[in-house]
Amino acid sequence: MDNFQFKVEPFSEDVTGHLSWGVLGNQLLRVANLSASKHDFGFSNVAESHYAWVLSRLIIEVGDMPQTGADYSINTWVSRVYRQFTDRLFSLTNAAGEPFGYAHSIWALIDLETRQPADIEHMADSAIAKAAEPYTIPISSVSRVKVAQTEPVRILKAAYGDLDINGHVNSIRYLQATLDTLYDCFAAALNYERHRVRRVEISYSKELYFGDNLFFYAQQEDELTYAVEIKTDQNVVATKVKVFFEPVCK
Predict the structure, then answer these.
(1) 152 — pLDDT class (breaks 50, 70, 90)
(2) In 3D, which of 243, 193, 191 has the Cα closest to residue 220?
């Protein structure tokens, strides 16, 4: 298990003064690579053999986000390697070492020449399998997302600021755009002063690029749960997101 320490710096918070979900999401992906690199299977390591890591799913569940100036840690480890996938888990702890959240990510290793997934489980001398640790986290797996709405509630065009170093729409940008969409389109039911995000589930299935249109189809499942499908011009689902809110206690 690898530990990385952070502080909620000014401008990394959201409007409520807590660590923003976008910053936290990008930090999780950052420490995932730092940890993998420490064990010789980070992005640059696998690129030497013409492979690349692709994020398939991400679940983040938190209680109270740390506020401006607070210290916190992200602990991460690979928990399982199976077929073409590997599970990387995270625990989030405050300055006192008490957990305030957890995350579960699933990654696929892609052969850059064939664009097909590699069989990680049976790779010879796999540093990934050797680094696996049997620790678990107390959050449930991803749930089903099926949106019945036939008209998009929002349409965005992928712009320069949405892109990562590979030229794809950044994985966490989908989350940020989803939260913007929900707080805007469901303003009668949701308000950031009265409702905070407790859990997000994201399933990625198609990469999008500069200039691509993102069509957001959203529906309210119950009082505090919302499902979103982000589709392409061809009506193909690129990403599915489920967001669970909870009332803010004051």
Answers:
(1) very high
(2) 243
DSSP string for residues in 36-95: HHHTT-SHHHHHTTTEEEEEEEEEEEESSPPBTT-EEEEEEEEEEEETTEEEEEEEEEET
Place of tokens 């979900």: 21
Does the domain at 154-247 match CATH 3.10.129.10? Answer given as: yes
For residue 168, is pLDDT > 80? yes
What is the sign, positive or negative, of the torsion defined by CA atoms of 164, 168, 171, 173? positive
* CB contact at 8 A, 13 and 70: no
Whether 10 contacts 17, CB under 8 Å: no
Where does residue 238 fall: left (phi above 0), alpha (psi -120 to 50 degrees), or beta otherwise? alpha
pLDDT for 74-115, tens place per residue? 999 999 999 889 999 999 999 999 999 999 999 999 998 888
**Residue matched to tokens 């011009």:** 233
Q: Name beta bridge partners: 183.
A: none
pTM of the model: 0.95
CATH fold of the domain at 2-131: Thiol Ester Dehydrase; Chain A (3.10.129)
